[in-house]
## 1
Amino acid sequence: MDNYLKMIGQYLDDIPLTKEPRNLYEPVAYCLANGGKRIRPVMTLLACKMFGGNLKEALPAAAGLELFHNFTLLHDDIMDDAPIRRNKPTVHEQWNANTAILSGDVLFAISSQHVSKVPDAHLRPVLDLFYQTVTEVCEGQQYDMDFENRHDVSEEEYLEMIRLKTAVLPAACLKTGAIVAGAPAADQELVYRFGELIGLAFQLRDDWLDVYGDLEAFGKKTGGDIVANKKTWLYIKALDKADKQQQENLIKAFSDESLEDDEKIRLVTSVYDELNISDDAQQKMKEYYALASVKMDRIDLPGEQKSELIAYADQLLNRNK
């Protein structure tokens, strides 16, 4: 992974951001300097390599997809009023909301510019996929906000929301790498579905970490989803399994605005613990991983060509941050 991360880091470092107006570009540089795991661009390069492509041809799009991911985080943090991202103040906390909105807008423009730097033969399918993904991510974010004021969100609704908001982006990263490598259309679709299923498992892991993760490792305050009234899979599963009293406790915790944040987190987590929701979430992640493995098995390549991407997916689903 070090070689991939070095390529991506060098490319991102070479993007000119020390220019005027300083108050537009400095927050973008701050956002990128916070690092992150660079999961999505690594996936693009891994897929390109798996199908025998030229990594240098896929690198600009890989970086562009990472820039787009950071744009979504920047705007999500404003909507969630999140104070911390990757152990540092969020952009809207460090500057202000208006600055964060505008810097996010220019970051989206920069991301589009770099995604479009693929070879001309692949430009149209890559851009079609990119803008489809942008649209779906926005749809997922809207559903996420809509769910904050509902107590009747079904498991199916939630899973569709995270498919759109989270899972389609890693899927698009993998398919972009496959397109640039000239992979057959059927294999492009299979690697997309692999990424989508891994993305669903990844988000469930994120939901789990938000409750059960360690602050230092996770990089943001635990219980943030609970405080923001986000109906995660853990909440929905708990509500489904709960008895009448536990249901009342959950709904009250999510609707009582007088509760202090720490008390709200404690009340909700105590119900999760009573119902063994942690174990249920981890089992659901394993189910998605098994479905993803079926898609990978159907890709007509030697096992050694697929091993690096499979190992990376394993690493993602066992992460602590």
## 2
Amino acid sequence: MRVRSVRTIDSVIVGGGHAGLAMSRCLSDRSIEHVILERAEVANSWKTERWESLRLLTPNWQSRLPGYRYEGNDPDGYRAVPELIEFLDRYARLISAPVRTQTTVTAISRAYDGYLVKTDQGEWRCRTVVIASGACNIAAVPSCATAVPAAVRTLTPMQYRSPQQLEAGGVLVVGASATGIQLADEIHRSGRPVTLCVGDHIRAPRLYRGKDIQWWMDITGLFDQRYDQVEDITRARQLPSMQLVGTPERLTLDLNTLSSIGIKLVGRLAGVRDGIAQFSGSLRNQCALADLKMDRLLDSFDLWALDHGLDGQIGLPIRLPPTAVEESPRLELNLASGEIKTIIWTSGYRPDYSWLHVPVLDRKGRIRHDGGVAESPGMYVLGLPFLRRRKSAFIDGAADDANDLSGHLVHYLKRVDPPHRLAPAC
């Protein structure tokens, strides 16, 4: 009989991305013994699940982690993925993060006054656990995908790398948030006809009055708005990402730009029946609503500039023209006709908590929490949209959230007696 040891520690962090590393630094500063369990390598999703041309949507100056920030000569630029990987790898070394790589968590369950964390490399007993495995583990593919004809190839953004992997012919991109508009643009420029399904979206200029949109969100305090200051936090956490792209030219990429180069816009994909893709007729209304929300946001920036005496010191308040929608957008597309060779589902992501055997998940598989404090004593979650602040999902948001939650974790540990030692498992 082989006896397996169960290692005991104060806290286990699941995930070696930017959120897990930020929490590690904060726990180290508070002298909390911990370990990071990472299924592959630090920044693994950036290394293995991103397309080749991707750049961050946030400017370099916004890459701020506890005790660490961008120090290069291009603060207003946008990192390519290899640069971000280097940034996170260097941070892990700088803080001496206790990362166990190539260690996949297979189960987490309650055990006495703490948690038992099972991995493919052994087991850990801890009093607290921090789930920092991310919100984008699984691409959200609509149920109607099963009705797509077999001759049409389907991909998710996690599988897409470049247009060269696609067959010649038309491409249907389903979803018009940041990922959808970027892939639609790139694929169309490769010579393939593109049709873009547009549902709920957030339109925004890359630059407004000479400043990056992220600068405005940061300086006006919108990014620091707390989850308990929002009337409907559930809805706020489900909002799509802004239609942005990070380019050296700091270009605005919106639906008007895409239409101008020949990309066809259709409404939200309503379903697929008998090989026919059916689109909602609400495209014009969706675009008008996005335009209205954008103008309201820019109005708030103008008011802030006026109130802070900057109105005459920055650029003019020039607005983008309304989104142009053709008179009768297409409502159907025969997927069996050969017009469309590939569909890319850019319809969002969802987390994977299949290994979490603690009753904290809602009916949609999301962790129930109050600003990152899960509904199980000693459990925390980090790196989700609008977790504690509007900026929570960004690299820049992890520092403040990790500082808050690590403080809560320390107070929790002080209230809980040290765990009982587990008997060796056979």
